[in-house]
Amino acid sequence: MPPLSPVDQLFLWLEQRQQPMHVGGLQLFSFPEGAPDDYAVRLAQSLREYRQVSPPFNQRLSHRFAQPVWVPDDDLDLGHHFRREALPAPGRIRELLAFVSSEHSHLLDRDRPLWECHLIEGVTDRRFALYTKVHHSLVDGVSAMRMAQRMLSADPDEREMPPIWAMPPKSSGSLDEGGSTLWRSVARMLERSGKQLGTVPTVAKELLRTINESRQHPGYGSIFHAPRCVLNNSISGSRRFAAQSYSLARIRNVCEATGTTVNDVVMAMCATALRRYLLEQDELPDKPLIAMVPVNLRRDDSEGGNQVGILLASLFTHLADPLERLRHIHEEVHRQKARYRAMSAEEVINYTALTLAPAVFQLLTGMAPKWQTFNVVISNVPGPESTLYWNGARLEGMYPVSIAMDRLGLNMTLATYGDQVEFGLTGCRRTLPSLQRMLDHLETGLLELEDRV
Known about the structure:
This protein is of the alpha+beta class and 453 residues long. It contains twelve helices and 14 strands.
């Protein structure tokens, strides 16, 4: 078997007890029409019959010549990987999120294939949920989203649909199917950045231009040195997960009224939520918080794959006016995207690798604890545009569960599904108490913008 790529190995190297490196997803379903009350129990029994596990879910870590490799697990114990759980009464969303918070805190067993799937019954209003977690070295978030979508159907009458671990592989190619998440993009940039020396003149010119801009725009001036705050303390291994759906139509109404994009409004909502959360704890820095944000830079004539750049964007959290904050966010993101559009793919890779070098050095070595390049991760994973079903059960919502890292105690990941934007907030339970209050602040951020426009 070939060794793991340097990108995939990176996620194994970074993993520690306080820093699990798995990504996850929570899917909430309603019972099919006419289903019996014990539908979830019967569903679990039928899923256990799918004992033929497909790649990459049948692979475990091994070593060849001191290099980690994936090998088939001939003794895979499906009972370990697939489990039926029951929520304690009354089975509200609060109990569901508490369950996911607890499970997401636990490391995956490296002696087994690095995944788990939990069927959760006892959710109110005749609903059940699936919580799946997979190590980031095995798949990335976009790949997991694509696998989850292939498991589903637009036909509510379709049956005999296998679970995610039993689906035949879509192709014999790369496991990540060309997808790219934030951390994987950063790792690829670092892996490739030293191979393109011809980009040096352009990259140097753009870095100088960025520094000059920072002198002219106070809100932009902290791009390379973000203010420290409670978000950037050392973390524990305990996680808190909070999730909620927001109307995509409401967000688009704000976009139309202000000439901004969905991503601009989402970032402004996150900025308001962070500002209010930190003000409650008397922890809001005088300088604006900086977010690391992946953006799709694909050209119309590009060939396959995804072109993803990483923006370090000010959230302008020092501004009290929500509309002014949105305007500044829009202008800054537009300016940075324009810079990337004028650069080749190789130049984008090297430029981003250089701007993120201090943060990555700290993540890998811990030797620069006082240098904070950014405060929070805000990521958007595109999801299905229409209502989907699984064996007749309607998918009500799908929420990404991501990774918190040392001195990056909060990850704000969202996914679009139909007419909803599904926010999933993953944070350190000790560092960020009452994280669920940020869901209310996200709603407040949207309401404030609606009131102003």
